[in-house]
Every structure is written in structure tokens, then in C-alpha cells.
Amino acid sequence: MNAEQFMRWWICFGQEVHAHLDDLNELDRAIGDGDHGTNMDRGLSKVRELWSLPKTPVENLLELSKTTGMTLLSTVGGASGALWGSAMVQASQKLPVQGTCTTETQIAWLDAIVASMENRGKARIGDKTMIDVLRVGVDILIKGDPPSFSERLNTVASSAREWSEATRSLIAKRGRAAYLGERSQGHVDPGSFSAALWWECLNRAMGE
Amino acid sequence: MNAEQFMRWWICFGQEVHAHLDDLNELDRAIGDGDHGTNMDRGLSKVRELWSLPKTPVENLLELSKTTGMTLLSTVGGASGALWGSAMVQASQKLPVQGTCTTETQIAWLDAIVASMENRGKARIGDKTMIDVLRVGVDILIKGDPPSFSERLNTVASSAREWSEATRSLIAKRGRAAYLGERSQGHVDPGSFSAALWWECLNRAMGE
Amino acid sequence: MKKLLDRVEAVVDDMLDGLAWSFPDYLRRIPQTRVMTRARPKDLGKVGIVSGGGSGHEPAHSGYVGFGMLDAAVAGEVFTSPTPDQILEGIRVADRGAGVLLIIKNYTGDVMNFEIAKDMASAEGILTEAVIVNDDVAVEDSLFTTGRRGIAGTILVHKIAGALAEDGCDLTTVSRGANTAIQNLRSMGFALAPCTPPAAGQPSFTLAENEMEMGIGIHGEPGTRRQPVQPARDLADYVLSRIVEDLQLKAGDSVACLINGMGATPLMELAILAKDVSMWLQNANIPCNFALMGEYMTSLEMAGASVTLLRLRDDLERWLKAPCDTPAMRQGVMHER
Amino acid sequence: MKKLLDRVEAVVDDMLDGLAWSFPDYLRRIPQTRVMTRARPKDLGKVGIVSGGGSGHEPAHSGYVGFGMLDAAVAGEVFTSPTPDQILEGIRVADRGAGVLLIIKNYTGDVMNFEIAKDMASAEGILTEAVIVNDDVAVEDSLFTTGRRGIAGTILVHKIAGALAEDGCDLTTVSRGANTAIQNLRSMGFALAPCTPPAAGQPSFTLAENEMEMGIGIHGEPGTRRQPVQPARDLADYVLSRIVEDLQLKAGDSVACLINGMGATPLMELAILAKDVSMWLQNANIPCNFALMGEYMTSLEMAGASVTLLRLRDDLERWLKAPCDTPAMRQGVMHER
Ligand SMILES: Nc1ncnc2c1ncn2[C@@H]1O[C@H](COP(=O)(O)OP(=O)(O)O)[C@@H](O)[C@H]1O
Ligand SMILES: Nc1ncnc2c1ncn2[C@@H]1O[C@H](COP(=O)(O)OP(=O)(O)O)[C@@H](O)[C@H]1O
Ligand SMILES: [Mg+2]
Ligand SMILES: [Mg+2]
Ligand SMILES: [Mg+2]
Ligand SMILES: [Mg+2]
Known about the structure:
Strand content of chain A: under 5%
Strand order of the largest sheet of chain C: 1-2-4-3-5-6
Structural class of chain C: alpha/beta
Order of helices and strands of chain C: HEEEEHEHEHHEEEHEHEEHEE
Bound molecules: adenosine-5'-diphosphate, magnesium ion
Largest sheet of chain C: 6 strands, mixed
Distance between the termini of chain A: 11 Å
Helix content of chain C: 25-40%
Shape of chain A: globular
Number of strands of chain C: 14
Radius of gyration of chain A: 16 Å
Protein name (chains C, D): Dihydroxyacetone kinase subunit DhaK
Radius of gyration of chain C: 19 Å
Number of helices of chain C: 8
Oligomer: heterotetramer
Number of strands of chain A: 0
Largest sheet of chain A: none
Keywords (chains C, D): Kinase, Transferase
Number of domains of chain C: 2
CATH class of the largest domain in chain C: Alpha Beta
CATH architecture of chain A: Alpha Horseshoe
CATH superfamily of the largest domain in chain C: Dihydroxyacetone kinase, domain 1
InterPro entries (chains C, D): DhaK_1, DhaK_dom, Dihydroxyacetone_Kinase
CATH class of chain A: Mainly Alpha
GO biological process, one term (chains C, D): glycerol catabolic process
Domain DhaK (chains C, D): 7-329
CATH architecture of the largest domain in chain C: 3-Layer(aba) Sandwich
């Protein structure tokens, strides 16, 4: 992954979230407080603004991950802001300060992102959160089968919405939806849906 | 007028107001605060309760008028309560403490009721209040033409709703509707409508 | 109609009991009446202050019973003025030997019922004076009609009269102070959504999604004009222009300001309106030396607000800032450091 | 959506400016932040108290900034927890050299953002402790999920922690007192009508004319159960039964009680609920030694209410009754005679 791919990826993520703003809010209205789209959109558009400044250190992946995290941390708010923001900051240490990073490094970094979220949010697969899409995806990338990274990434990106859809039948254990208990069943978790968009954009950015 | 007629009259008035509860509230909702029916009904049902007690001094017209007034005063509230209540108390002095009263006395007493209202409320004919129905009626009774009281009363009772209806085109000068200025036009004054019911019941009670 | 209540016909009684229970340090309900009075009566020899009106304006008026404001508040049915016998009870309990001031909002029903009660009190030998609050500039002032309504500005009259009375002024002085306040007091309100009186069971008027009522009173009645919904800034501009014109306020005049919610409008929106009001006043070079923002005189669950300005003079400002301790308004030098 | 506002994207900023203007004796907004702090900072050497959360709960939390309660309140977007950088600003200003207690409502977002800010503050050498309020009995308490939510009872934790801090207790003692309060605190709420977050522009849920939501939180979300509308008395009975069972309250135990409006419910209805609560407690022989009734922790213009009980011990009662002086809560021995 190089810096340009990183930026294309996150710009795409911001655009996709913006395009699905109402969908994400609607999902959150059903089992949360209706702001997931607004939250993510607020933060991701700030991330983009950041890069339109002239002085961005575009060649520093560590810095990119860290400032992306800091920006999300200070603009998104809510559960998603804390999780995405602090994960991107913490995991940034895995990335190089110069040049591209290897596939192994990228995977270790992605794993670190999700691990940081798991650590902070205490959610496990099946708790009906974005972890249901993020952890499953990272584990496929880690497993090394098929051997081609881009193929695995393709699989993740093309399956991510299904994983998100699969949260529908679950009872939420973490996040705001957990307060609804059984009433949370029958609705897709909003954070899992935005996480799917994230995988899709990564795949797109890496393929270009 | 004898005591029985007095009581039949006011019981009729209470029943008619109760039957028109929603109409009166509806009229008041348009240009007031929607409670004229509820107010009058609350007071008039208390008046009836009073007479179902065993110890009512039924043969004392003065006392009847006064206790009717006191009851209205302490139960109706609002503009109508103050006007009807204090008028009935004040005018009661015109009535005898024993036996029936003559037509002349009755007319003087009715005039005193309306005069008391005019005095307290400062409304004149044309101000879009119950005075538009009460003063016009009393003046016909006073004028002595046609000579038969019951004929004049008939005229008053059969015209009263028209007088009330005629308030529709007026701009209110007194009471709550006055705050609406020109917006009060096009609506019948609620107090004028209940006043019409009062004339109708008096006519009915005197004819029986 | 969806309301949190038990018996429609007993809302006022149930409410008064609930208020007395909630504010035991402040309020007592006089048994068998609808009069709320101070838990700790004012000193003997001081002027008593009585106000009241229809219910549905909470915290007005029982919320202002206490040190530095009212001695008794008389509650009528919802939006219906109280009856003279109840007002008389309030006057009796408020009389500490120096007479009683009645603070009446200018509605025909209120004025007449209070006047009748005043006559009754006089007949009992209780000295009384009455002042009539008519702060609503939405309605034209005229001798030939009912004149202007009394609305939220009434609270500031309670405050000022209460301070004078607590100071030991005599009835004439207290009454004169209240009238000075009234002469310098103007308000105007608007509604974004109507309210539903419990007994009526239906809204007092209906509005389309983009409509509002300008120039409302406090009894759920429609205003003087229906108009499209506007941003808070434009509403502030309109009502302040009307008030300032009516008061003939000039740059440099200082004011007190009350931003009052009508019931359903959240504090967030009132605060936004307050911001707009503050900027308007600043632009007009009218310093605000005393501000109140919150729900002071409501119309059940109506959505909307009113703005009140009181032109200040040194004495009015001093009385406004004097300490008071009531369920709904508490201020003092308590914890100043 | 009909709201009194200017720019949907700036509601929080406009509100904070309006609050600062309305309560100049109490509040300052730290420039460029969403932190409200005391106009007169607490004495040096006393523990600072910081709370906060999404906006839309006004007067929470900035309404409780002042003597005897909070030193800083941090406001997030509507119904969205504030971000760590803002919370850190609040911690910095609240630190008077004796450390800072964070009072957090138990929502994933709030807890995580406050925890991140706490880490940042520690990195700066500021001593911090955090307590998590989880008073909502509508939600089952469980280690394997998020646990119970924090709702209106939070105000009583502010009060108690604030009193301890003002008394000069050290951070551990203040934190322990707050936790004692939390352990004895339970609440439950219900909604008769939803609210509309400004950015969303539509109600968070819809209800038929005869439906209500039982067991709501404070973010406009639906409750744990939809049910037909019931009289206030039955609602009081249900929520009190749940609370009393969860707290294992026995006859003779004394409590503090908070009857809290969700925004659009008028004081009249809250007072009626208060009456029902008072009668229920009296029948259960549970004396109430301290009552609050009004809007303390709202959900924009949601219609509904919550009831909170705090089991009292001598110390808790003393701290609850200690003086405080904030925009939304003022009590003291000011005018006692
Ligand atoms: N403990 C957690 N671990 C992982 N993800 C979580 C956790 N809590 C919430 N989430 C995710 O965050 C999403 C909600 O984000 P958002 O609506 O922006 O925040 P909030 O719930 O504070 O309003 C949920 O849909 C869920 O996927
Ligand atoms: N000054 C007045 N003089 C005569 N009648 C009046 C006056 N003010 C009001 N009314 C009458 O009272 C009626 C309203 O009564 P009601 O609704 O019971 O009282 P309120 O206006 O206090 O709610 C009006 O329709 C009008 O006929
Ligand atoms: Mg959300
Ligand atoms: Mg009326
Ligand atoms: Mg009325
Ligand atoms: Mg949120």
C-alpha cells in the first residue's frame, strides 16, 4: 500500500458513507440513535479537508494513519468515533514513515486496527457490531488462503455486505443496540454496514 | 314568575348548555380559549346539584337568584363566571323573599342582571359579547310592545339565536376574542350563543 | 390526546397536591382550596402579594410563591381564571397586616374575578390594591377594547413587587413599584405548535408543517397572524423590533430580558433564541443587565417562545436582582465568593 | 421538522453561546471549544468535577456547572458523545490541583471517549478518576453486554460528588462517594411521544395515538417495550415497582426522588406524576426525604418522564441537601428564617 492508495481508499470511504448517509442513519434509528451516518460523514469529510491542504505529508503512511485517526477522534464522536479514531492512531505505529508498506505490514496494521477496537469496545464476533465485518475480514487476510492478497481482499470486499446483512438475525450485545435486547433482532447493525463500505473501498483503492 | 319556574328555567339552561357543550367549546376555540361550554356546564350542573338537596328554600326568589349567582361565581370561573355570577347576586335584591314576582319586577330584575354585566364588563351592543343577545332581549321586554309579556318573551326567545348569529360579522371589542382583532370576524361569539339558550329556556319555563 | 394524568376532571387538584409534595420547603396547599401559600409565611407587617390565573401556565403561578415573590397563588381550571372565593382565600392568607397587592394579568375573566374578590376582601376590612399586567405588544392597546394581554412579563412584576414587599415598603409603594415595572414592560410570543387542554381533548388550533402563529397569548389561542416558519434569528428580529418600538427604547437604554418557553420547546432551542436576542440587542446597543431564560409562563405543551424586555432604571434593576427563593426562581448572594 | 433554530449544523454552538449569555454569573464557554466552565472557578486545591455527553439533554450538563456541582461540562453533537479532545479541555480547566473526577453515563460512546480523554489527561500528569452511572433498570445489568444505561439519576451523582468536592475531600473520597450514590441509584423512564434530532429532521420513532414506549433511554431511541397508554398512576406503579425491586428497598428505607420531564411534558403533568409517586411511596412506607421535580435530563422535545430513587444513607442525604448554585439547580440556606 502506498500513500496515494491510502488516501484514495479513505476518500472513497467518505464518499460511500456520504452516499449512504440516510441509509446509515435509518439503520441506526431502528436500533440506535439515528446518527451513525451523520457521525461518520462529519469525520470523513474532515479527513478529506485535511488532505486538500497543501502541506500534507503524503508520503508518510504512519502519519497518514495517525492524522486520520486524530481527525476522526476529534470530529466523529459517539462509539464509532472513539473506536475508529483511537484504532487508527494506535495501529499507525505499525506503518513506515516513508515509502510504501509491504502486504505483510499492511495486514499486521489492519489486524492492529481491529484488535484495538476489540480491546477498547470489548466486542467479539456475534455481538452485532462492526467487529462482525472487520474481524472476519482481517482474519481472511491473515490466513493467507488463497495466496494472492488481492484475491483475498476481493473475497473480503465482495462478502462484506453479506456479513453485515448477517448481523440482522443477531441480538446485540455491545453498543446502544444492546439496550433493546431482543428488539434489536431483525435489524442490520449500522456500524457493520459502514465497515463493509470500508472494505469495498480498500479493495477498489488497492486495485487501481 | 314563581320559584318553580325559576328552577325549571335554570335546569333547562343547564341541560341545553350540556347538550351544546361541544358546540360552545368549538365556538370558543375559534376566537377564545375553547372553554366556554365547559365553564358554563361546570357551574350550571352545580346549580342543579344545589336544588337536589332537601333543604332548598324554594319559595324565596331572592335567595334563589342569589345562591344561583354565588354558585356560578364560585364554580364557573373565567369571564362568563364573573359576569353571570355577580349579576345574579347583585340583581337578586330586586326579587321578593316570598311568593311569586310580578311581570314588572321580573323585567326590572332581568334589566338589573344585564346592567350589572354591562357595568362590570364594560361591553355595549355590537362589541360581540353575550350583551348582544341579553341587552337586545331585555330592551324588547322593557319596551312593552306588544303588550303581552309572553308574546314579547316569545319574540325574544325565537330571535335570540339570530342575534347570536349576527355577532359573526362583528369585530370583537371585549373579552378574549378582542385580542384577535379582525381575525375574530366570521365567527359567532360563544357567550352570545349560551345567552340565546338562556332566553329560550326562560320562555319555555314561563310557558309551562 | 396523550397526557400523563389520572382523571381529566381532577388535573388541577392532582397537580396542586403534586406541587406541594415536590416543594415541601416552599409550598403549602390550603386544604379544600386551590390556593398555594408559603411554607414559611412572610414576616408580620409586610405587604402580601397574591397572583394567580388559569392553570396550564406552570411554573406560573405557584412556582413563584416564596421569599421575595408571592405569598399566595390562586389556581383556576386550565386556562380559566380562578373564582373570587378562591382568590379571597389567597388574599386572606397573604395578609400579614399591611395589606395585599393583587397582580392580575389583563384578561377580562381574570380582571373581573380578581376585582370581585378585592371587593369581598375590602368588605372584610383587608386593605388591597391591584395592578394589571398588559405587556403583550401583539395586541393593540386601546381604551375602547380590552387592551393588551398580560403574558410572561408578569413574572418580572412578581419579582419586583415581591422585592419591595420583602423590603418592608408599604402597600402604596409596592403597588407603585409594580406599576412602574408594568409601564416599562413589553413582551411578544409565537407558537410553532398548539397545545391540547385536557378537558377539550383536542388541539386549540392546527398548523401545517411550515406554518406558525405570531402574536400568541398564553391560553393556547391562535395568535394575531399566521405565517410561514422562520429562522430563530428572524423571529427574534421581529418581536424585538415590535417591543423596542412600542417601548421607544433608544440606543444606550439598558434592559432586563426574559426568554420564555411555552412548554414543549426544548431548552436547546430557547438557548439558540437567546443567542439571537443577545446579538440583536448588542447590535442595537441596548445592554442587557439581567437575563432569564427557561420556562417561566407556559401554555401546557405548546411549542414556541416569548421574549420580554423591561426597560431598566436603577431601582427596577435593584429589585430584579434582589434575592428570592421560590420553587421556580431562586437567586441571591448565597455562594458568591 | 419545526424547530426554533438558525443553522442545523450549528445548533450546539449556537446553544452554548446562548447559554453563556443567559447565565453570565455562572457560565463561561471556553473559546473554540464546546466546554462550559464556571464563571467563578472553584478554590485551588479542591477536586474538579467534569461531566458531559451528547447535547439535547438540556439543562444537562452545562446547567449543573457551578458551586457545589460541576466545574466543567462538555457538549457533544446532539445525542452524540463528545470527543476526547474536548473532554480533555474540560479536564484541564477543572483541575485545581487536586485531580478531576469524570462522571460518565454508561453508553459505549461516552465511556470510550471519556476513557481516551482520561488517558490523555494522565499523560499530561493530571490525576483523574472516573465513575460510570448506570441507573436505568429498564435494561438488564450484565457483564457480558453493555450493562445498564445512565439516565436522569446522573444529576444526583453530580450533586453528591460536587458537595464532597466543595467540602474539600480528596479525589479518592469524592470518587468513592459518587460510586456509593451510583450503587444506590435506580431510574426508569417512558415516552408518550418521540423527539426529532435536528440533523435527522424526522422523529426517532412513531407511535399510534394510544401507544407509548416503556423503558426509554435519553437519546430518543425506542424503549424496551411498546404498550398502550396508561394513567399516570399505573405508570408510577410500574416504574416504582421495578426500581424498588431492583434496589431491594424495604419498608422504612428512606429515599430521595427525582421526577424528571423528558422535554415536552408540561410541569402540570409532571406534578400529577409526582402526586402518584408520593402516594405510592407513602403506601409502601418508604419516606422521601428529598424530592426534585422538573426538567433535569431531557431528550429534546420528547414527551414523557422518568422516575429516579436514591436509597439514602445519612451521608448521601447530607450531600444531597448541601448548598449548590448552578443555572439549573440552586439550593441553600439562603433565606431560611
Ligand atoms: N463496543 C463496541 N464495539 C464495537 N463496535 C461498537 C461498539 N459499540 C458500538 N459499536 C458500533 O458503533 C456503531 C454505532 O455508531 P454510532 O451510531 O456512530 O455511535 P453511537 O452509538 O454512540 O451513536 C454500532 O452500529 C456498532 O457497529
Ligand atoms: N367584557 C365582557 N362583557 C360581556 N361579555 C363578555 C365580556 N368578556 C367576555 N364576555 C363573554 O364571555 C364569553 C367567554 O366566556 P368564557 O369562555 O367562559 O370565559 P373566558 O373568556 O374567560 O375563557 C364570551 O364569548 C363573551 O360573550
Ligand atoms: Mg448512533
Ligand atoms: Mg373561554
Ligand atoms: Mg377561559
Ligand atoms: Mg449517537
